[in-house]
């Protein structure tokens, strides 16, 4: 198989490297990588691996320049550079430490927390924002609720599952406040089963699973008005406030709209953001 690959597939120095972008939005400029070992470094992190014994490894395809131990690199638009410590070539399960990696090489950089999947590594000026167009991935839609078997292991569960999510861009982890559940999403039942097996076999961590609970939703169906007066005297100047609030339904799917109808500045404008924030917090909780 390796002989066929070497004979038929294009030489890495002759292939078409991806177009890098420098800048943001419509002002981003195209950068064409050239397989020149003496040029500025351009590399792409195409895989992240986090091993409980080895630590975090970022697998990098070098498109331009040369990476060596001690090379100072930036991650995308990061302002703080990191220094490459150990550089490896991967041979099966074994890591072979190497003195350098040039254009076309696939190498691994160890123990750098800033590395993440699809990141671009470069040694340009710190004010440069060099990146690639985001890779398209299917949206994870199949979810299960997970909880640790032992009470008090919630933080450890988040740390371990977070490592697995960092390795796989098609996994998503979130906490649903309405049901107080931790939900992990994948592409299907098999995808999530592999995640649970890795939790058990690699990290020796057991979790309980169940279908996510459905968060009940409420909505406004008719106009209503209310007022509340707050008065508190505790020996000082005291506190007093009065709020009048009217609510009315909007067309389905419109979302939330806050309107300030105070006339003549009777209520100072600096209080309005706090009132709007209180309304949004009440929306998150609901009445029932």
What does this structure look like?
With 288 residues, this protein is α+β, with helices and mostly antiparallel strands. The protein folds into three domains: 2-131, Elongation Factor Tu (Ef-tu), domain 3 (Beta Barrel), CATH 2.40.30.10; 142-210, Alpha-Beta Plaits, CATH 3.30.70; 224-285, no CATH class. It contains four helices and 17 strands. The protein has helices spanning 2-8, 154-167, 189-201, 272-285, and strands at 19-22, 29-32, 42-51, 55-64, 72-75, 82-83, 87-91, 94-97, 106-110, 120-122, 130-131, 142-148, 172-176, 181-186, 207-210, 224-232, 239-247. The strands form four sheets. The chain has an eight-stranded antiparallel beta sheet, with helices on one face. The radius of gyration is 27 Å and the shape is elongated.
What's the layout of helices and strands?
Layout: H1 2-8, E1 19-22, E2 29-32, E3 42-51, E4 55-64, E5 72-75, E6 82-83, E7 87-91, E8 94-97, E9 106-110, E10 120-122, E11 130-131, E12 142-148, H2 154-167, E13 172-176, E14 181-186, H3 189-201, E15 207-210, E16 224-232, E17 239-247, H4 272-285
Antiparallel strand pairs: 1-2, 1-11, 3-4, 3-10, 4-9, 5-6, 5-10, 7-8, 7-9, 12-14, 12-15, 13-14, 16-17
- Spell out the helices and strands N to C: HEEEEEEEEEEEEHEEHEEEH
SS strand fraction: 25-35%
**Structural class, from helix and strand content?**
alpha+beta
CATH architecture of the largest domain: Beta Barrel
CATH topology call of the largest domain: Elongation Factor Tu (Ef-tu), domain 3
Q: Tell me the name of the CATH homologous superfamily of the largest domain.
A: Translation factors
Query: What number of domains?
Result: 3
Give the % helix: 10-25%
Global morphology: elongated
N-C termini distance: 64 Å
Strand element count: 17
* Count of alpha/pi helices: 4
The major β-sheet equals: 8 strands, antiparallel
Unreliable residue stretches: none
* Text of the CATH class of the largest domain: Mainly Beta
Q: Which value, in Å, is the CA radius of gyration?
A: 27 Å
């Amino acid at each position: 198989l390796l002989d066929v690959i070497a004979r038929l597939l294009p030489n890495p120095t002759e292939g078409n490297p991806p177009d890098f972008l420098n800048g943001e939005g419509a002002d981003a400029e195209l950068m064409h990588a050239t397989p020149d070992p003496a040029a500025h470094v351009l590399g792409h992190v195409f895989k992240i691996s986090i091993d409980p014994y080895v630590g975090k490894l970022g697998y990098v395809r070098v498109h331009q320049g040369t990476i060596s131990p001690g090379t100072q690199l930036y991650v995308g638009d990061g302002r703080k550079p990191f220094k490459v410590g150990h550089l490896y070539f991967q041979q099966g399960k074994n890591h072979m430490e190497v003195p350098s990696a040039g254009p076309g090489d696939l190498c691994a950089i160890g123990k750098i927390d800033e590395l993440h999947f699809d990141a671009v590594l470069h040694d340009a000026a710190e004010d440069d924002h060099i990146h690639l167009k985001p890779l398209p991935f299917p949206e994870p839609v199949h979810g299960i609720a997970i909880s640790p078997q032992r009470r008090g292991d919630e933080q450890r569960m988040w740390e371990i599952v977070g490592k697995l999510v960092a390795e796989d861009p098609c996994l998503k982890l979130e906490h649903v406040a309405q049901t107080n559940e931790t939900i992990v999403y994948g592409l299907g039942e098999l995808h999530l089963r592999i995640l649970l097996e890795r939790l058990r076999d690699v990290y020796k961590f057991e979790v309980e699973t169940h279908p996510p609970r459905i968060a009940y939703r409420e909505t406004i169906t008719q106009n209503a008005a209310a007022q509340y007066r707050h008065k508190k005297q505790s020996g000082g100047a005291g506190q007093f406030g009065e709020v009048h609030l009217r609510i009315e339904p909007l067309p389905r799917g419109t979302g939330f709209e806050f309107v300030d109808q105070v006339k003549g500045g009777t209520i100072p404008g600096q209080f309005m953001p706090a009132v709007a924030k209180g309304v949004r917090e009440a929306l998150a909780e609901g009445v029932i």
